[in-house]
Amino acid sequence: MSDDPVRIALVGAGRMGRTHLEALELARGVTVAAIVEPVASVRAALPARGYTMHASVEALLAGDDFDAVLIAAPSDQHLALVRTFAAAAVPMLCEKPVGVGAGEAIEAAAAVDRAGVIFQVGYWRRFVPELRALRERIAGGELGEIFQVCGFQWDAEPPSAQFRAHSGGIAVDMAVHELDQTRWLTGQEVAWLSAARGAGGPEAGRDPDVAMILAQLTGGAAATVSLGRTFPHGDCCWVEVFGSAGYERVPFMWGEPGERVFRDALVAQAEAFAATVRGAPQRGAGAEDAIAALSAAELAGDALMDGQPRALSPAVPM
Ligand SMILES: NC(=O)c1ccc[n+]([C@@H]2O[C@H](COP(=O)([O-])OP(=O)(O)OC[C@H]3O[C@@H](n4cnc5c(N)ncnc54)[C@H](O)[C@@H]3O)[C@@H](O)[C@H]2O)c1
Question: pTM of the predicted model, to two decimals?
Answer without folding.
Answer: 0.97
